[in-house]
Amino acid sequence: LLFLWSITVSIFGIGGLLGSSGSRYLTVKYGKKKCLLCNNLLMIVAASIMGCSKIAQSFEMILIGRFMCGVSAGLCVPLHHQYVGEISPRKLRGFANSTSSFFWSLGKAVGQISGQRELLGSQYLWPMLMASCGLPALVQLITLPFFPESPPYLLMHKGDQEGCKKAIRQLWGEGHHQAEIDDIMKEKATMKNTKILSVLELIKEPAFRWQLYVIVILTATVQLCGINAV
């Protein structure tokens, strides 16, 4: 029983690894907005499966739902940061990116508070707690169609300059936005001469060795600093 529940908990991370690994390919092929919409559907399906697990008397449904939630979260982390950053005006871009981390932390806190026995962590309400992750996904699924595709994606990957201008006007209002379009064109020209490294190539590349060491040490020490216990 301990082994089964350990797998149920840890399979979220395995799904997250798979989701984040495929995010780059999916965003280039389908665009960030479409990927986010499909990702919301995946999260809603996962929440529904976990929410119905008690009625069906199936712990396997919790296992499957947790894995799907992990895949969805793994896709969402890079997708959300990129989309929010790309649709924000230049002067608000740093602020918009920082709000992502704030709401991730806030969501974890709300989830832990809601999981207390006095709230949704009781014997009868825990299926609602498991299914609650589908609520934010549903809100985004309803509201996201009113937003345009990312302007850099339209210009850099689709070559749709008119679509890019239309998206910029919809996001930032009427005005002269040629400077932002020129910046996207410069980035596109730079990317043509830049090789995109795979994970294995990144590990082997000597020029990025120290940066990689710093990231690995920081990530490991965050897990060991006691924040999870807090």
TrEMBL record:
BP-aspect Gene Ontology terms: D-glucose import; dehydroascorbic acid transport
Gene Ontology terms for molecular function: D-glucose transmembrane transporter activity
Compartments, record wording: Membrane
Keywords in alphabetical order: Membrane, Transmembrane, Transmembrane helix
One CC-aspect GO term: plasma membrane
Membrane topology: Multi-pass membrane protein
Record protein name field: GTR5 protein
